[in-house]
Amino acid sequence: MKLKIRFSGRGGQGIKTLGSTLVRVAMVADYYATLTVDYTPSVRGGPIFCDVILGSDPISYPFCDKDADIFMAIDQKGFERAAECIYEKTFSFIDEHTIANAEEIIQEGIIHRVPITRRADENKLPKSANILCLGFLSKYLQEDGKIDLKEEYYDKVLNNMPKRFRDVNLHSYQLGQALYQEFIDKSQ
Predict the structure, then answer these.
(1) pLDDT at 178 over 80
(2) From CA 25, how far away is CA 97, in angstroms rounded?
(3) What strands, in cross-sheet order, belong to the sheet with 110-114?
(4) What pLDDT is attached to residue 145?
(5) What number is the average pLDDT over the span 98-122?
(6) Per-residue model confidence (pLDDT) at position 148
(7) What's the rounded Cα separation, in Å, for the pair 127 and 125?
(8) What domains, with CATH codes, occur in the chain?
(9) Helix %, strand %, coil % for the chain, to 5?
(10) Alpha-carbon distance 182 to 166, whole Å?
(11) CA distances (Å), origin 133, targets 27, 59, 121, 137, 138
């Protein structure tokens, strides 16, 4: 089993933290995991993306090259820089408020528009949109069944975060899970 995920955004949104947190969850579950990050020299505000590869066997190539299973994007510039990972089987979860032209750029796969940043903003947690994405993704992966990342693995990693971020991150994670449930309810 191998699962390839690309997250994209802009510097300062916690994209690297999102990827590294998912890698830690997978490692707790005894999966092999890699994280690669691509960003511009800008400290804040420049496009960034990270590739997370999870597998039951050792991973020899840690990148998504037109073969991502999942693509999540929460910023226009990051989206434009990272969208080349998509192919006909990619499930793309694209922020519906910050990305204007997803349907023009993504010509393959399945596009889902999700109000990720709006939900973070509504709850006065704009700096936690990354962990909100993790909560959303956790529910998607549970339903997809391709990888077995139990809730207890996420809990273990999130509860080991620095205390000053723990409560905010746990709340954001739960908001992401609730957003996924709303997404499913709306789709049916």
Answers:
(1) yes
(2) 28
(3) 32-39, 47-55, 2-10, 70-73, 91-95, 110-114
(4) 84
(5) 94
(6) 87
(7) 5
(8) 2-187 (3.40.920.10)
(9) 45, 20, 30
(10) 24
(11) 19, 24, 13, 6, 8
CA dihedral 34, 57, 137, 130 (to 10 degrees): -10
- Give the β-pairing of 91-95 and 47-55: unpaired
- 32-72 pLDDT per residue, tens: 999 999 988 766 788 999 999 999 999 999 999 999 999 99
Q: Which residues contact 142 (CB under 8 A, 6 or more apart)?
A: 149, 151
Cβ neighbours, 10 Å, residue 56: 12
* CA nearest neighbour of 121 among 132, 111, 137: 132
> Tens digits of per-residue pLDDT, 1-31?
899 999 999 988 889 999 999 999 999 999 9
User: What pTM does this model have?
Assistant: 0.94
Whether 188 shows a pLDDT value over 90: the answer reads no
Residue 96, pLDDT score: 95
Q: How far from 31 is each of 73, 90, 124, 158, 170, CA to CA, in Å?
A: 24, 21, 34, 18, 23
Those residues with Cβ within 8 angstroms of residue 134's Cβ, 6 or more apart along the chain or in another chain:
18, 21, 22, 154, 173, 176
Q: How many residues does the chain have?
A: 188
Q: How far is Cα of residue 6 from the mean position of the Cα atoms in its chain? A: 7
Indicate the SS3 state at residue 168.
Answer: helix
Q: Which two tokens stand for residue 135?
A: 């909560």
